[in-house]
Amino acid sequence: MKIKFYILSLILTLSAGTVFSNETVSSAENRTSLNLTVYNNNRALVQENRKISLNKGISTIRFEGVSAAIIPQSLIVVSNGGFRVLEQNYEFDLISREKLLEKYVGKEVTLIDEDKIFGERKNASNVSAKIVANNFQPVFEVEGKILLGFDGKILLPKIPENLYAKPTLNWLVQAQKAGDISTNVSYLTEGFSWNADYVLLVADNDKSASITAWITLTNESGTSFEKAKLQLIAGEVNLAQETFKARRTMFEASADMAMVQSASVAGVDQRSFDEYHLYTVANPVSVRENQKKQIEMFSAQNIKVQKRYRTQSGGMYVPLRSGGENEKGNALKVQTEIVFETGKKNNLDLPFPGGVIRIYKKDGANSVFIGEDNINHTPVNEEITLKSGNAFDITCFEKKTSEKRINDKKTEFTKEITVSNHKKESVTLLFDETLYGNWTIKSDVKYKKFNANTARFELNVSADKEVVLKYTATIER
Fold first, then answer.
1. Which secondary structure element, helix H or strand E, spans residue 379, and what is its range?
2. What is the DSSP string of 103-139?
3. Strand 465-476's sheet: what is its strand order?
4. Are 45 and 186 in contact (CB under 8 A)?
5. Are 72 and 187 in contact (CB under 8 A)?
6. Beta bridge partners of residue 33, listed in sequence order
7. Where are the beta strands (DSSP E) in 55-178?
């Protein structure tokens, strides 16, 4: 079935549209500066300066070029005493085919009958009709009859006064004097977010790597912003209380740049600020509507990394002598991990904003993708552990061989952990036993208390060999 699309033609009878004689139009072209501060959680702070020409007394300003996802309650207007805003309206009823037809329900329009469905007659190409409904498609009344499915062009006499081509703020203002008034406007908008994306290239010996960090900026605010000074806040800003006071705090936070610990890398200046980190891009950035933009944040070479294997037990609740057909017990997945530290000693004297690290490994002249993992916001001098996947040639099984209840509060159980290494080189496996309450462990193999609920064993397994770990845990609740 051939689908035809409606083509809407507009005839404007008023050259000035809805602009009145005492109305000033300020568009994005009137900007003298633009700052964009983007947060991780679907928020951005827009700060811009414009020169607005006003007459003395009361008039209206049509402030165009704002975000379609603006939070109007967050608006701050500073004109240094030039004028004050008496009333504000945010106009988001934008011009579209559906909106125009909706506004003309019950009114007369003109149909262009190119297919001559009304027959051969004088002026048959222009037919007067009334729109009686507009649900998914317009319904017309023509000469007392109802017309459905008209595929021609529709002429409207003008654009309704309460429709706008772009998101607009309408202000009723009172100016103290006439002239060009420098005006600073700040507001919050939804539809913006950013995150960090990293590419980690591990050497073939698994001991060193290089890393490149990218800023990935997403604009779904419904508006483009040209040549903005771009800043990015890394951290979790509390948005639970959607109040003007909370938003004002965010404005002031971005304006009062009392910052320390500066480090400039790859055209992006990083500073710690309050409980967050703020990144400023050196060059102006244009961010189009519905665009993802990537900017290099930093890169580093000769990073010391460690490859390790780790697995975790099922805890004390593993069934006694479990394992089914496998006499070794329950199979445990062995994770492959890449570990490195941030900090000056490892050429990474920078915090890591939360994001995804994609891991590649050198294979001669080529590189192979071996996994990816998410990281949280990580400060300097902290360890980052990345899970790249599960080991293919290392297997691990656990089996509970005994369990007894000593008293109402104390339980004791014994486990066997069997590790097989089918690789051509020796490996070290970290085995974590999960325990809750006050616990102790008896074993011929040393362990360390990794945290309150974890006992960690370090097992060295030679190539093509098998190691069996036996231990007894006592838990008191």
1. none
2. HTBTSEEEEE-TT-TT-S-TTTTEEEEEEEEEESEEE
3. 330-332, 394-405, 410-421, 465-476, 438-443
4. yes
5. yes
6. 49
7. 57-64, 70-78, 83-91, 108-112, 126-135, 137-142, 145-147, 153-156, 168-175
Which uninterrupted H or E stretch holds 416? strand 410-421
Q: Residue 119's CB: how many other CB atoms inside 10 A?
A: 7
For residue range 85-99, list pLDDT tens digits in order: 888 887 665 666 777
Q: Which residue has the tokens 């404005």?
A: 251
- In tens, the pLDDT along 363-381 reads 988 999 999 999 999 999 9
Output the CA–CA distances (angstroms, integers) from residue 192 to 8, 42, 405, in the order listed.
32, 5, 57
pLDDT tier at 117 (50, 70, 90 boundaries)? low
Is residue 325 scored above 90 in pLDDT? no
Q: Which residue has the tokens 């003309």?
A: 104
Residue type, 351: P
Measure CA 461 to chain center: 43
In one-letter notation, the amino acid at residue 4 is K
| Nearest CA among 101, 114, 287, 79 for reference residue 192 | 287
In angstroms, rounded to a whole number, what is the distance separating the alpha carbons of residues 17 and 168? 15
- Cα 88 to the center of its chain, rounded Å: 30
d(CA 417, CA 433): 10
CA–CA distance, 456 with 458 (Å, rounded to integer): 7
Q: Which of 146, 153, 109 is nearest to 129 (CA)?
A: 109
Q: Which residue bears the tokens 């690789």? A: 423
Instruction: Check the CA dihedral 203-358-233-296 and report its sign.
Output: positive
* DSSP structure class, residue 348: B
Query: Scanning the structure block, which residue is given the tokens 């950035």?
Result: 285
Q: Which two tokens stand for residue 61?
A: 């300003």
Side chain identity at residue 236, one-letter code = E
